[in-house]
Amino acid sequence: MAQRIDVKDVNIYYGDFLAVEGVSMSIEPRSVTAFIGPSGCGKSTFLRTLNRMHEVIPGAYVDGSVLLEGVDLYGPDIDPVAVRRNVGMVFQRPNPFPTMSIKDNVLAGVKLNNRRITKSDADDLVEASLRGANLWNEVKDRLDKPGSGLSGGQQQRLCIARTIAVKPQVVLMDEPCSALDPISTLAIEDLIQELKKDYTIVIVTHNMQQAARVSDKTAFFNIAGTGKPGKLIEMDETATIFSSPTEKATEDYVSGRFG
Ligand SMILES: Nc1ncnc2c1ncn2[C@@H]1O[C@H](COP(=O)(O)OP(=O)(O)OP(=O)(O)O)[C@@H](O)[C@H]1O
Ligand SMILES: [Mg+2]
Q1: What share of the chain has pLDDT > 70, as a percent?
Q2: Which SUPFAM superfamilies did the record assign (predicted)?
Q3: pTM greater than 0.90 (yes/no)
């Protein structure tokens, strides 16, 4: 599992509006890459182009290429549904299906993909996914209770279990801890460290300490002004971005002088 991503000359549009311009970057497998930058610079927009979620918005489109292990996700023969299975996504607010049991939440993605699965395979997959998301011990005695009965941090780990249950290559996370308390945040950060052994992970975060703690590489995006496109300013080893970045704008942002 875990595949590399190579983005080349990507421009991202909402209708006529060019939201993100000219991004090229490489993301290594079995690593964590953080996207940082001020609000509106296009972090979420760019993240969604990595699994073809951007184009579900009417009028939205992308040009350039996004290669997953050398294969262009935007190529003519590529099924976007298969892309989204391969490149899973975890959102800002935990979004379990509220009336579904914990177990059915974990299996939701698998069932959506029309995979027929025996009861014992399903039980094994539920356990493996919940263990992978570091939630098993907390929920193993109440798998048939609704997902909405869990704490926020537990719900987010449930969503991570649902994402990894379909066995993706890449996991995208858009501010996965922004609705969580510090303890749950640390639990998710520990989990991200575990997950990177098996997956390529990309995380958007506004929390500089979080980026410094969890990521191997950091990409800083910026925007010149309202209505202007966001751009990738620089990407490097996280330690370099936070101690001696090349660009002054990066230095100003990571040292808290703006954003
Ligand atoms: N559905 C949409 N339709 C039109 N424009 C959009 C849409 N979603 C985002 N945008 C615009 O695209 C630009 C980038 O937004 P995006 O949400 O990617 O920024 P962000 O860096 O994730 O910001 P934040 O840190 O606040 O989450 C903004 O100008 C935003 O208004
Ligand atoms: Mg965002």
Answers
A1: 98
A2: P-loop containing nucleoside triphosphate hydrolases
A3: yes
